[in-house]
Write a structure and sequence with these properties.
It comes from marine metagenome. The protein is an all-alpha fold and 175 residues long. The chain contains eight helices and two strands. The longest helix has 29 residues.
């Protein structure tokens, strides 16, 4: 680098340091970086897909390829990470004062305890000792939710699926 190039470089660096807004286009930088990451994710997914197809001894089967490609296509930058305490104060206030839609129990005491029932889109876990009626209670609650046209996912490691279905049917049919 000769003397003239050095001076021009130093002037450019001084100008960038003094007024960074003129030389920095964050929108372009984010868009270009996001596109680069997407392209690399797609490239990596295609290469891995080819290795799955070419290697019959791989532990992954061909059904995994669509998952690889859909994962690669879904790469994007989410600018809404975290929150700004002052800028988001109105949204937080609305969230704190929003009335949640609840699924009521058909048991008055449980409605009183839970302030009207279970909030929608929540994971509810029933824990109790052995032989005290967890499955009986959960089947009753599942049947109650089903009768209110709600979707229910019942997960248990204690009992067979058919027995749970039989108990829920008995609750729904009032047997």
């Amino acid at each position: 680098m000769n003397e003239e190039e050095f001076k021009e470089s130093m002037e450019l660096l001084d100008a960038i340091n003094s007024d960074s807004e003129d030389y920095t286009d964050l929108g372009w930088l984010l868009d270009t970086t996001e596109k680069f990451c997407q392209d690399k994710a797609i490239y990596n997914a295609v290469v891995e897909s080819i290795s799955i197809l070419d290697n019959p001894k791989t532990d992954k089967d061909k059904g995994y390829i669509p998952d690889l490609l859909s994962g690669a296509l879904s790469v994007s930058f989410d600018p809404h990470v975290g929150h700004d305490y002052l800028d988001d104060s109105d949204d937080r206030f609305d969230f704190y004062h929003r009335v949640e839609e609840r699924i009521p129990f058909d048991l008055d005491y449980f409605n009183r305890i839970t302030k009207g029932g279970l909030p929608q889109k929540t994971l509810n876990i029933c824990l109790a000792g052995t032989g005290v009626g967890k499955s009986l209670f959960m089947c009753h609650v599942a049947a109650s939710c089903l009768s209110q046209n709600q979707n229910v996912l019942y997960i248990t490691l204690e009992m067979a699926e058919e027995k749970i279905a039989e108990r829920i049917d008995a609750n729904l049919l009032d047997i």
